[in-house]
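Box S1 | Example of a co-folding query
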Amino acid sequence: MMKRPRSTRDRRQKVALWLVACIFLAGPAAVALSRGSGTARPLSYGQFRKQLERGEVASAIVGVATIEGTLRERDSSGAPVAFRVSRVGMEHDQDLIRLLDDHLPDGSYSAEEPPSPIQALVFPGAMFLLMIAALSLVISRSGGFGSAMAFVKSRPKLYAAGEAPVTFEDVAGHDEVVTELREIVEFLRTPGEFGLLGGRPPKGVLLVGAPGTGKTLLARAVAGEAGVPFFSLCGSDFVELFVGVGASRVRNLFARAQAKAPSLIFIDELDAIGKARGSGGPGGHDERDQTLNQLLVELDGFDADRGIILLAATNRPETLDPALVRPGRFDRQVVVDRPDLIGRAQILKVHARSVPLDESINLQMVAAMTPGFVGADLANLVNEAALLAARRGKTSVGLSEFEEGIERLIAGPERRQRLIRLAEKRRIAVHEAGHALVARCLPETDPVHKVTIIGRGNGALGYTLYRPEEDRLLHTRTSLDHAISSLLGGTLAEEIVLGEVSDGCTSDLQRATQIARRMVMEFGMSPLLGRLNYGREATSSGPGDSPWSEQTAREIDLEIRRIMDEAEARARAILETRRATLERISAELIERETLDGGALERILAESHPAPGAVPASASIA
Ligand code: NHX
Ligand code: ZN
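Box S1 (continued) | Returned holo structure for zinc ion
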């Protein structure tokens, strides 16, 4: 191939690049200019209609997707205030035209002409063609398709040695994991000494744990402690549009890491490439398989003595291709658990370093309120609490901000619907009172922390919050039975007090049924089916596929049904014998909207029978 003089090539490439840049930049700018929306006040469609009805609109031009015009209101310079309503779309209706006619009768509104079909088609078309032309110019001038691929190649995020100042000091709540990882740090620091006694250095280490538990942070800390470069990529980065790109990225990654050895490679979400081959159904997974094969080749190819270690993270190790976890590959697994009480307190301490806390606050208490939270959740919580304190005009963050922050993280921000019909408010209150009362009357449930009929951003109209007193690791059969009963308590209370149920119970029933199903299928808690594990859910895709007989399938259904029925009977007995208490709690809820654990206790203390007294009819299960 003839070589073009370099200067010409460079110049053409520059021109082409400028062309691309201009089109990208000029497009939106031109649109913005033509709209003249520089100082227009953005209004929602609703606001606009309201202002129109109040006669506050002076003129309006109704466009295809926008309404622009001026208000009667004047700004500081005496000019009428311009406004702009965008994303009107569907809401253009006959009603609007009538409104405009009524309120702007002197014809001070008009409709913008829709763009002619020619304009609408030709302009974007021409832009598109120009872009393609410019892009292909760039590609052809920069050396053909091979380097076009480089364009697509996502470079691994590289943290040079010493540049990633994360150390084990920054990792709180994972003492055991850190102990295990120190060995890897030692190896990276002095790769040679490891093999002195014939020991084989680790090659690949798999960090296994739920999302947000700090696996990436741990990997960075290993690199930081060892002072080696850290190449970080996410598994899903490898799974791309074009067959072969993923594999070439793997090759590229290892080549770069080898060049900088000793070094650390970190692949997050390994399961994205490492899923068992051929598990994804027929066809379409060649790309992932190629990528995985390349990864295996590289894993076998690199000589561990050179001081490269591969760390990877996954939250589903069981889905990984068995070839990946064979000796000499990812042969070590380190479990990064959800932090326990002590771990959470340590993590909170790290995140609260830069946040002024109330003197009264004790992070131990916050840790106790957040069972199940992972590091990322706790970081969010501290942030949320700090924002709330700022919004409330406080100079330090107190316990109440943490409490509200926890609820926001679990269920979203408060959503006080302005308009709830009294009958519905009553139903919500009865429902939540039912949950709370059943939970409170059964010995093996978590204590009720709070009951409320104030809705939340997640769509719940009301909810009952429990407070697990310590991290519960195991659940007895009784505690699962009781959990189902309290989940059913809401709907049952509606039925008992209001005569019929509503459609609000989906999520309660889902959760209750899931517990019952797992009791039967996973925990061997059904006498009829015996202590067998039938696997999670049915994996069958067609009839006759299921790993158990039809007879067993029927028995599973019947046993799930029996557990649910017994739990329902238990809850019903509690609610029927305490009908007055139920009504009392819901009345208080309607009045006060939220009851905390203490308020609930006070109501219960004045009521009969006492919560602990189990009615005779409830002893059937
Ligand atoms: C509906 N919403 O779909 C209406 C609009 C029964 C008093 N007909 O069980 O709010 O029914 O104890 C987390 C958990 C939405 C998020 C449950 C989001 C339920 C909630 C649907 C109370 N509390 N149901 C409950 C409820 C509903 C929903 C959720 C969620 C209701 C119930 C929502
Ligand atoms: Zn409910």
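The pocket of zinc ion (ligand 2) is lined by residues 431, 435, 490, 508 (CB under 6 Å). Residues 1-10, 27-37, 139-152, 615-621 have pLDDT under 50 and may be disordered.
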